[in-house]
Amino acid sequence: MTCLPLTLDAISAFRRLAASVEFALSAIPKEEEEEVPHNRFTRKFHEICDHLEPRQRNILLNYADRIAKAFSEATSSVRQGQNFEHKFNLEEIEDPEVRAAVIIAFMELDDETSLSSPDQFHVSAAAIGLVSAFEVFCTELLRGFFTRRPEAILGSPSVPLSVVVNADSVKQVIREFAQGRAREMVFAPIDEWLPLLAKHCGIELHKKPDQWREGWRSLCWLAARRNSIIHTGGIVDNKLKARAERIGYSSPDQNDRVLLTAEEVRGAAYHTIQISMQLLFGLVRRQTEVADRHRESFFLANSVASLQLALIDRDMPQLAYAMRYQVKLTSNEKISSLTIAQWTILIAAGHQELVRSEASKAQWPDKPIYKLHKEAILGTPHSTKIALANALNNGLTMVDVLFSRNFYLVKRMLLSNPEIFAKFNRLESSDILQLPDLPQTDVP
């Protein structure tokens, strides 16, 4: 399919953004791994107590209040952007094991409240990468838009005279000016230039950023704190306080330190993808001619669907789900590969019943592969086994089923039963009917 440069550049930029978001999410501690410093510290303290003799435990517990107070002071110091130094006379503890326990407790305290805490560093690094990737993505969209609509370039972008003199054509000069203007725009705070890009994509944002939807506001607030982390080491100054008020967030205290949580950065990652999807599809639909619009949108949708299937194959169903878009079927329209991809992604994210209700009423093409997809989506083990044998007799290969992302649901059924999966690769299609029914897998 031949597509316009605007569409090709936009989807390439989105793929790069998606890869950056995936990397950022992998750097954030997973939900089940997250534990607040106080809980980690308390757990370690109890482990030490359990190891000691009752007499030693009683001595150690006498210091519990002083250690708890030190923890509170250390946490407060970190918020103020200061390292904490505890003052504790260890010589007064005569028992060597109790003294060792107190030293270890304070070592844990230092680790958990340090300005260089690994978890906080990973979360901050993820936030920096996330916002930077979004800015690069938006720069690419603006460059593509200005290249296609040079009359929209406002001001006088900075382009070296040598570039203009050595340009081979007017189009090359326009591309340079488009790139210069896009970079200059994105250099400003995100809440100042995002409304203009959104408008070019057919999205109207309120004049006041504090009136925007939560996803847009949270991304802008994360970007403001990213700037603070980079330029001031995360120390709250008047600039950040003013930005917080403009975006509609509670202003942190002056000279406090910016502390990001894994939960909010993870949420911002999904918001970033959802907003980028709106910008991506909006720009292509709004900035292409009517005659080209359906073709360009279809290409975008298929490209995103392929990316989504790759993500669920890499066990990232929630990120794939964040890229979702609505596929509407008319009463006489048959299922397409694009619809199957979207339904697969919804099932992988845990929305089986909604999908199965729609899939059972839809019109499916009368082909063996579509029959296999239908039964896998509906979650019917016996019918899926029959459809799989039929599809293998009509051109589908074992390699397709085992390794192609397009057959994710079928492969998941096979993988859920190791005995069937072990036999599957060595069977002829006619032997598949002799296997037990494929298990129904409702849990993503």
Furnish the topology, listing elements before pairings.
Elements: H1 5-27, H2 37-51, H3 54-61, H4 64-79, H5 96-113, H6 118-148, H7 161-165, H8 170-186, H9 190-200, H10 214-232, H11 238-247, H12 262-286, H13 290-313, H14 317-322, H15 337-348, H16 352-361, H17 368-378, H18 381-392, H19 398-403, H20 408-415, H21 418-424
Helix pairs in contact: 1-6, 1-12, 2-5, 3-5, 4-5, 6-8, 6-10, 6-12, 10-11, 10-12, 12-13, 13-15, 15-16, 17-18
- The share of residues in extended strands comes to under 5%
**Tally of DSSP helical segments:** 21
Structural class: mainly alpha
Percent helix: 55-70%
Biggest sheet record: none
Structural features, described:
It is a single chain. This protein has 444 residues and is mainly alpha-helical. Helix content is 66%, strand content 0%. It contains 21 helices and no strands. α2 packs antiparallel against α5 and α10 crosses α12. The longest helix has 31 residues. It is flat. The model has no long low-confidence stretch (mean pLDDT 80).
